[in-house]
Amino acid sequence: MSARDFPIDALLRWRMERAEADAPPPPSATQLLELARPWWVVWPEVFRARLDRLAQMPLAYGYAMTALDRERAAHPVPTIVGGTEDVEAWARISYLSVRDGRLRLRFRLEGLAGASDAAFEATFVSPTAERALLVGDAELSQSGEYRVDVALPAALADAWARLRVTDPMPFRFVLHPTTDAG
After folding, report:
1. d(CA 120, CA 3)
2. What is the per-residue pLDDT for 63?
3. Residue 176 burial (CB < 10 Å; 0-12/13-18/19+)?
4. d(Cα 53, Cα 24) in Å, to the nearest integer?
5. Strand bridging mode 172-177 / 76-81
6. Which residue, among 122, 57, 52, 114, has the nearest Cα to 93 in the 3D structure?
7. For the segment 34-89, what is each residue's pLDDT rounded down to a tens digit?
8. CB burial class (10 A; 0-12, 13-18, 19+) of residue 88?
9. DSSP state string for the chain
């Protein structure tokens, strides 16, 4: 029997059996739950240190108004950019929309020397309660801005629905590199 005479369904069945035999065992439920835990739960001491640094960063309202376009000047959001070494920076919000229970925003990072990561896990932190409010992926666009599109809990959606780019933001950021382990 030549290769042309071999039935395709038998070949596919053989390939699937080989793939199943070579595959690692599936993770247990405990392992899946462990993988699903957010970074601030896995590394609480790192999260606490980043919260402490955020709390020490002043809100620079005067700095916010020095932009050339004063009508659309956004208040800078204190930000800790995590990685091998935590760096203090500011996020300048350029677009913010809360509709249908989703937050869509764009921001530019200021105060970072050198290139930044292409993607972060953006943890929105309450400036008063010092807790994580929500988390979303922040991806770098070609224009140099990070974009976040995340579902909001109902309470936050109601509270943030009236926010404008020029308002002081009710959150601070901890940007955690998606490729970093801590």
Report:
1. 49
2. 45
3. buried
4. 42
5. parallel
6. 122
7. 778 887 788 888 888 888 888 888 765 544 444 444 444 678 899 888 877 888 88
8. middle
9. --GGGS-HHHHHHHHHHHHHHHSPPPPPHHHHHHHHS-HHHH-HHHHHHHHHHHHHSPP-HHHHTTSS-GGGPPPEEEEEE-SSS-EEEEEEEEEEEEETTEEEEEEEEES--S---SEEEEEEE-TTT-SEEEEEEEEE-TTS-EEEEEE--HHHHHHHTT--TTSPPS-EEEEEETT---
> What is the residue type of 18?
R
CB atoms within 10 A of CB 139: 16
Q: Are strands 119-125 and 102-110 parallel, antiparallel or unpaired?
A: unpaired
Both tokens of 53, joined, read 């640094």
* Distance (Å, whole) CA 39 – CA 61: 30
Please identify which residue in the block is written with the tokens 């290139």: 115
